Amino acid sequence: MTHKSIRIGGLTRVEGEGSLLVRARGGRVTDVELNIYEPPRFFEALLRGRDHTEPPDITARICGICPVAYQMSACQAIEAACGTEVSGPLRDLRLLLYYGEWIESHALHICLLHAPDFLGYDSGVAMAADHRHLVERGLALKKAGNELVAALGGRAVHPVNVRVGGFYRVPARAELAPVAERLRRAREEALATVEWVAGFDFPDVEHDYRFLALHHPAEYAILSGTIAVSDGTGFTAADWPAHIVEEQVPHSTALHARLDGTAGYLVGALARYALNGRQLSPLARSAAEAAGLGPVCRNPFRSIVVRAVEILHACDEAIRIIEDYTEPQAPSMPVEPRPGVGHGVSEAPRGTLYHRYRIDGAGLIAEADIVPPTSQNQARIEMDLRHLIEPRLDLPEAELAALCERAVRNHDPCISCSAHFLHLHLDR
Amino acid sequence: MHAHIVIGIGNDFRGDDAAGLEAARLLRGTLPPEVPVIENEGDPAELIEAWTGADLAIVIDTAVSGAPAGTVVRHTVLGPSLSRGDAPQPPPAIQHASSHALGVADAVALGHALGRLPRELTLYTVEGADFGLGAPMTPAVRRAVEETVAAIADLVPRSSARLRPF
């Protein structure tokens, strides 16, 4: 039995950094440990004692890629605690802002982080040298998302216009017209992106996923709804703590989430598509069908196609909202603090994001709990790796290491601010 | 399209990694109003978007090179003497220092591949020491930020005069 140890200088092309340890012995994988460090835990402590109006701005700083997701889950949790629900044009504007973030995030992941895996490049930069127009198209898509976020949020990164109850300022109808025009071009670019990524060569891998995603009766859920699970069960945001329990695992500083006692469920693009695919816009639905996705996609490598379809859907829906938009009478609804607990769930680009706050009698945050998508997917990513690696242990180590990195990137994990090394240890 | 642009890069919640952002904040209001000052938290696409077409982009980022904390180094990543076809060379100290998936070195390389770089690119690096989550900036780095701000404030008006058409 030989022992080999390989160090790779970084788990690259994921948002943030992480480390991975794989041990195999006698033809069997014995350990797979994805080790990430989670900033949300730090932020939970930071939030205690703050005014109930502050979490949307503070938690938006957790991630430079999905601040809107943090703002939306935070706002809805606080509003729920205070007995308020934002509806009508203000809710539409929130959706619109969120679509902008989906476009930004998915475009970046597809074109600079994930596509190089399929075209044989070790980075988006290397790919850009040979496929300039494809990367330019990705950046153009991302820019359309940026412009949408800036129009609603005040700026493209870390929007500052969101508040509990709505916005500080809402755009006039005329202000959104050029954004819609830009989105119409982005829609064409998104359609071309779906067709492009659908033609990639995908490893023949399928996993028996247990999917979890938000579900809304009237829309492909992104902003709000109830939680649906692919085994047919479901629960409300307020029941989240009764179903999702996080536990410490020895190898990671991050918590691992269990769903009704079982680890390894999946959130994110594949889960949303499996549970809500019929609610995609007609154009996105037909693009998904033409891309060969079928009603459920269990091949994680194909998640790049689902993300492209979601960009198309986001463009489509954003255009529809702008066309139907009427300015609300006020930029926000009044939200009076009261003692209580509120839960907020939304679909970050990477998956379901849960916030819970307990507000005290003085309107201050007494407790905060944030469950990000990556901690929910961590156990499932480890399972993906185990299944993928075990039949391929004879591959050269460099190839195996590259495959491991690809398997992690399939789920677009946001592993901000952690150690920057991937270790692959092989005992075999 | 701007003659000059100043971009501070960093992360406010990672100790000394906030140096670039802090420098940008201090420079805003100090520099002439026609010079945009941008805070960037690790989005390379936004960097490329911001500096495309500029005559001079000044970027401030934290570095990890092994030098004493607070060491400020000015690098000419892309200068008038560098031919447009040559690949720009960001210093090794920032190659892996970013706390995000893609850092300034990637943005420079990507901008080069796409033909979207400023005419000149000057990078100021401030050597960081503590990148702990929620850590304050170390005093030496804070002093270095002020030093960098003063250097850039001196540089920009002169450059503006040089580059502006008569």
Automatic annotation (TrEMBL), chain A:
Keyword annotations of the record: Iron, Magnesium, Metal-binding, Nickel, Oxidoreductase
GO MF annotation: an example: nickel cation binding
Residue numbers binding Ni(2+): C63, C66, C414
Alphabetical list of InterPro entries matching this protein: Ni-dep_hyd_lsu, NiFe-Hase_large
Binding site for Mg(2+): E44, I370, H420
Cofactor(s) annotated in UniProt: Ni(2+); Fe cation
A Pfam family it matches: NiFeSe_Hases
Domain of life: Bacteria
Keyword match tRNA processing: no
Positions contributing to Fe cation binding: C66, C417
Family to which the UniProt record says this protein belongs: Belongs to the [NiFe]/[NiFeSe] hydrogenase large subunit family.
Name used for this protein in its record: Coenzyme F420-reducing hydrogenase, alpha subunit
UniProtKB/TrEMBL annotation, chain B:
Keyword Coiled coil attached: no
Keyword Plastid: no
Keywords (A to Z) from UniProt: Aspartyl protease, Hydrolase, Protease
One Gene Ontology biological process: protein processing
One function term, GO molecular function aspect: aspartic-type endopeptidase activity
InterPro entries: Pept_HybD-like_dom_sf, Peptidase_A31
Membership in a protein family: Belongs to the peptidase A31 family.
The protein's name: Hydrogenase maturation protease
Source organism of this protein record: Streptosporangium canum
